Amino acid sequence: VYFYLWIPESAPSLLAAAVKAAPVLSLALMVLSYNGVWSLLGVAGGLLFSVGGDICLIWTDLFLLGMASFALAHLLYSLSFLSSRYSSYSKSSAIYIVYLVLWGIAGGAYLYLLPFLQKSPEPNVFVPAVGGYTFLIVLMATLGARTRQPLVTLGAMVFMVSDLTLAVQRFKVIEDLEYGRHIVMVTYFLAQLLIAVGDVKAMQAEEADEFRKWKRT
Questions:
Q1: Angstrom distance (rounded) from CA 106 to CA 109
Q2: Cα(66)–Cα(127) distance, rounded to whole angstroms?
Q3: Are 159 and 191 in contact (CB under 8 A)?
Q4: Are 39 and 32 in contact (CB under 8 A)?
Q5: With helix as H, strand as E and coil as C, how does the chain read?
Q6: What CA–CA distance (Å, rounded) separates 103 from 134?
Q7: Using CA atoms, how far apart are residues 179 and 177, in angstroms rounded to an integer?
Q8: Cα-only R_g, the chain
Q9: Cα separations (Å) of 32 from 36, 77, 166, 207?
Q10: What percent of the chain has pLDDT over 70?
Q11: What is the model's pLDDT at position 23?
Q12: pLDDT of residue 179
């Protein structure tokens, strides 16, 4: 339904912005309804910043503002993944391999993009901006993996895939793929869905655990 309703990039409009933002806005309201107002400082807030980013990216001249909105979303996701309901410690060394792979992919992707960023219309802006954004998204993915929550972990990783697919097209690393926008948006919505549902489930698990402790006392 989304791809039939969202009219192409060549015709940015308030309608296109509203249709594009609606799925993530719905997820934000869902998380807010389940997890309460404090979730605005976590995943619900991150989803709302993502809505802002979605709207900005409809217009190409608002790309940097959109990237800043998504950077703030990743920061709020990261803070949420550090909260008590996610706090966990794994003795397995495998998790450190996952961390290294994530940082290796992010670092390699940025170095690969660097020559193209330097050829962009505003290299003095895009080189540090994309570097900072890359740091925040891989930090978010690392903390997502740290939670050991399958939905959150997968969502964070899929988000990286979505953004990398967008970046290689936006900065002309490759020619625009025939279904490039579809790939970006499907992976993007999937990532947001996994993170949102994972956060609700984590909150429910924490509440159930607190209830069991209360019953024992």
A1: 5
A2: 16
A3: yes
A4: yes
A5: CHHHHCCCCCCCCHHHHHHHHHHHHHHHHHHHHHHCHHHHHCHHHHHHHHHHHHHHCCCHHHHHHHHHHHHHHHHHHHHHHCCCCCCCCCCCCHHHHHHHHHHHHHHHHHHHHHHHHHCCCCHHHHHHHHHHHHHHHHHHHHHHHHCCCHHHHHHHHHHHHHHHHHHHHHCCCCCCCCCHHHHHHHHHHHHHHHHHHHHHHHHHHHHHHHHHHHHHC
A6: 10
A7: 5
A8: 18
A9: 5, 14, 28, 16
A10: 89
A11: 93
A12: 76
- Side chain identity at 163, as an amino acid letter? D
Please compute the mean of the pLDDT values over residues 18-37 and round it to a whole number.
94
pLDDT band at 76 (very low <50, low <70, confident <90, very high): very high
Residue among 95, 52, 92 nearest 72 (CA): 52
The confidence score (pLDDT) of residue 158 equals: 97
Residue of 105, 44, 106 whose CA lies nearest to 77? 44
Q: Which residue has the tokens 């988000």?
A: 159
Q: Residues for the chain: how many in total?
A: 217
Considering only CA atoms, which of 158, 161, 146, 142 is closest in space to residue 196? 158
Task: Give per-residue pLDDT as tens, 107-165.
Answer: 999 999 999 999 998 999 999 999 999 999 999 999 999 998 999 999 999 999 999 99
Residue of higher predicted confidence among 83 and 46: 46
